[in-house]
Amino acid sequence: MRRWQVWFFGRSGQALLWITVIVAGWLLLTNPGSARARWWWPFERSDGPFTTTRGPIIKDGAPASGWTAVAKAVMPAVVNIASTRTVRGPSAMPGPFLSDPFFRFFGGPELGPVRERSLGSGVLVTADGIVITNSHVVEGAQDIKVTLADRRELTGKLIGADPKTDLAIVKLPGKDFPVLAFGDSSRLDVAEVVLAVGNPFGLSQTVTMGIVSALGRANLGIADYEDFIQTDAAINPGNSGGALVNARGQLIGINTAIFSQSGGYQGIGFAVPVHMARQVMEQFVSRGAVTRGYLGVAVQEVTPTIARGLGIPEARGILVSDVVPDGPAAKAGLRRGDVITAVDDKPVNDVGHFRNLIAGLPASTKVKLTILRDGREQGVEVTVGELSEGRQAAAPMKDRPDRLGVAAVDVTPEVARKLGLPPGTQGAVVVEVLPGGLAADSDLRPGDVVVEVNRKPVRSVRDFARAVEEAGGKDLIMLVNRGGTTAYVAIERAG
Q: Could you give the residue numbers annotated as active site?
């Protein structure tokens, strides 16, 4: 036997071997996650409910250094926009506080032309200088000065403004600008953390943090087409047109307005979702104008009272209250009283969502509307038209439950002439809604012409009174002609 074999199998060699095995085993057992051991180790080490991660410290893709890295990545693409215009009358406040459209000024004598300065924000979205901002930031602007994060000042050119969405597109001269990537606003969730970046009160590169408070806010009176993201991230005058970003540093909204009784931040801000902003931008850049789809219908929500009155099993979908003659919907056979429950097999229950959906479709697009008519479900294919000025893609008609107490007269030729009604119009004209009556809290108004009650035609006050009497204690669904457009008004009497 050789000398090394004698040593290895001797006491000294065996002792050294076992010491080596024990040390190596201890190292592997106590640190199985090490890079060298991981190739063979079949288990992951667990530290219990509290773990130390080597990846991002925020879920959904935030960098390892957290919100600081997100803000640093976003801020170079957010710009300051200063525009000037000539108006009549005195300025109400000096400095950067005077001109942001969040403020509204009243009264004061006209003193002739005055140069007014407006401050807001914008977001660079292409390397060749396309900036998205709000229409009200550049409204009536005679010149637009854009200050970048690196303090360069450039003169912007207005490509187009769309007051219906309160969005505008400005082009900067040059190239290789820092840009903010588009996110997917349709995937937002309530309570998701967001950052608002802008120039409140002219204080450039300001970042505030909050959450998504609500989605799909509409009927706020801010714009014609509303689908706002509501946030509690602090937004103030000057933030208009700035960026609302997610944890990935992606643009998910354009900060637009605040709800405030003081003129400043009160925890409720609104941003145009980026899918709407991107659509407007692409149309202005490619065609120089924004076009929208058009159906030629007036629609309203289906309330429980209206559902009962129309014999609908449940309050779902949206009610067609009027159809424009010779419009796309009329040509497809859509009728007043139809309830639209789906568009291309996707359910719809909200008037604002439906209007935005139709408006976003190109002309000549064919859509399938699922409707309820006389209690039966059926499909109607409509070819979308193009919306022109003076039309609405799908006009909303507001409704409210109410109580009854109405003074009415017959529609005479003289009454029809005063109300601007077409010759031959028949019905009962509401001349007074009496306090304390069933209609006092409704949307029934003086000047409305009642033409139907619970699907029964009304040609006179006598017909009106008879229809109400025959309804007994049931709810009343009145079809009224209001300024040439029809709408349903519900009068809740059951129960």
A: 136, 166, 240
